[in-house]
Design goal:
The chain is 38% helix and 29% strand. The chain is of the alpha+beta class and 307 residues long.
């Protein structure tokens, strides 16, 4: 576990540490129930891109956060204490009792509130980076416990490896996917409220006389091993609800379906990002170039996921 954490860290020439925070993609997302405390139960395959946000850590007397990058403006307008990066730093310090500080520089390359787990990935990268910088030497399991107290998706982002995720995000099964794929992600740069999407999920199913929740897949390991099975047997159950709040999601999906030959298309998380999988990165990059020409106001990224 410790080696896996170390592999996420790149030392800088000045004693700083760099940790990438890649985008989290829900290859599928099913809602299988709801707890008494209101948390929904899910069944999902998380996979991660190579690109994403980037965090840099330097020793300091106090904990300070600066934000740069194309999506820094929206975060800079918020209180630093409300940022998940700061919350993760404070939580790690409190858990370990360390009396150290850090200058944390966040390069925000992923759109905010986009269904790509950017904030969760940033928090996970913070725990990894400060665990090394402060030499607190916590294991992955110990960091996961802190991460879960901050958000359900954050423990999965610590490893940035493909995982089958259940429960509220707290039941995780790492899995080696036998396939890899090029991926294009499109975000129309429209925010979607996650609570409103979940409310709409319940209303949507009730209006259509559907069961309130999805039935869990019994042989999930077999399904995730094959892209064609994933396309046929899985979905994102929040997509219909999200489209009602953000019609641009449908526009992005329509573009991908009409303009490309793909392996799988759907929304990630609670939106508004839509992704398509391709047989290799070159195909994904070709699609991304075409999308940027036709929709310059969208955020578009080509990358790879899987093995």
């Amino acid at each position: 576990m410790k080696n896996n954490l170390q592999n996420r860290i790149q030392p800088g020439p000045d004693g700083s540490l760099f940790v990438k925070a890649p985008a989290k993609v829900n290859i599928f997302l099913h809602i299988t129930g709801r707890r008494d405390d209101g948390y929904h139960l899910l069944e999902s395959l998380f996979s991660f891109t190579k690109k994403g946000d980037l965090l840099r850590f330097l020793p300091a007397k106090t904990i300070e956060l600066s934000i740069s990058g194309p999506f820094s403006e929206v975060l800079s307008a918020e209180k630093a204490a409300d940022n998940l990066v700061m919350k993760a730093a404070v939580a790690l310090a409190a858990h370990t009792g360390v009396q150290k500080g850090a200058t944390i520089e966040l390069e925000k390359n992923l759109p905010v509130a986009s269904g790509l787990g950017g904030g969760s990935a940033d928090a996970a990268a913070t725990l990894i980076g400060l665990n090394a910088l402060w030499e607190t030497d916590l294991t992955l399991d110990q960091l996961s416990s802190i991460a879960l107290s901050l958000g359900a998706d954050i423990p999965a982002c610590l490893s940035s490896g493909s995982q089958i995720v259940r429960g509220i995000g707290d039941v995780r099964q790492p899995i080696e996917l036998p396939w890899s794929a090029g991926i294009v992600i499109i975000n129309p740069l429209k925010k979607v409220s996650t609570p409103e999407v979940f409310d709409g999920f319940c209303e949507f199913r009730d209006r259509r006389g559907l069961p309130p929740f999805d039935v869990a897949i019994t042989d999930l390991e077999k399904v995730v091993s094959d892209l064609s099975l994933l396309d046929v047997l899985t979905s994102n159950s929040l997509q219909d609800s999200a489209v009602q709040l953000c019609p641009e999601i449908m526009e992005a999906e329509r573009f991908l379906r009409l303009n490309t030959q793909n392996e799988l298309i759907r929304m990630s998380g609670s939106g508004a990002s839509v992704f398509a999988l391709y047989h290799d990165k070159a195909a994904a990059e070709s699609v991304a170039r075409r999308a940027k020409e036709q929709a310059p106001n969208w955020w578009i990224m080509a990358d790879t996921i899987g093995c």
